[in-house]
Hints:
Elements: H1 3-7, H2 15-22, E1 31-35, H3 39-45, H4 50-71, E2 75-82, H5 90-113, E3 117-121, H6 129-142, E4 149-156, H7 158-170, H8 181-185, E5 198-201, E6 220-223, H9 233-244, E7 247-248, E8 255-256
Parallel strand pairs: 1-2, 1-5, 2-4, 3-4, 5-6
Antiparallel strand pairs: 7-8
Amino acid sequence: MALEDILNVVPAGSVEESLAKQIDYSRLPRHMAVIMDGNGRWAKERHLPRVEGHRAGIESVREIVEGSARLGIPVLTLFAFSVENWKRPVSEVSTLMMLLKRYLRLELNTLLRNNIRFRVIGRVEDLAPDVRAELVVGEEKTAGNTGMIFNIALNYGGRAEIVEAVRRLMTSGIHPADVDEERFSEHLYTAGQPDPDLLIRTSGEMRVSNFLLWQIAYAEIWVTDTLWPDFRKHHLLEAIVAYQKRDRRYGGITQPAVAGR
Length: 261
């Protein structure tokens, strides 16, 4: 998974080919997180119901998941449904859940073919039984895959995750004096995974929306005005090229964007 894998699926002489050749594949983000925003605005611009924006966004999910795996990104996390999204109309929530189930059914073979391990982070227990069943199938069937970890954040909230981690610590028997950042991280949904090096947000909004609040402490943030249903492989490549041009300081000495810290 590297340059050759990307060149196999992009047109010769294309913008994608040019961007792919600019990337240093030894310095990819270890973990890339994406806030998929703009489905509603995409639909509104086309005088369509909001749910049509969600339907269109599925193609972007498909392209970015497969593209990230081909690049060799170790971990990808997509923010699909927040704890606040329950406030949306019932019909919209139902459509989102239906689209999620359809995606998992249709894309399972693609995940297996690309050696992608599927995982869910968030308060899964609050989801409907039929949705949970589909998620379990996806996790179990891809559990043996050794390539990219694909996290989908469902019924997720960053503050809720931190509160839940505190509760787990309180019942674990660990003395408060023994709690440090590393031990605390072991009780987060992303335990065992590197923190995101790159956070991508579509639709031009300049906020993190309660997403991976602990984990993105030192993440580089890349924002595009592109709405999620229009986000494609060349946008992904642009984000990585921009990431690799940045100097990462971590509150101290300037460092180039690298895979390890």
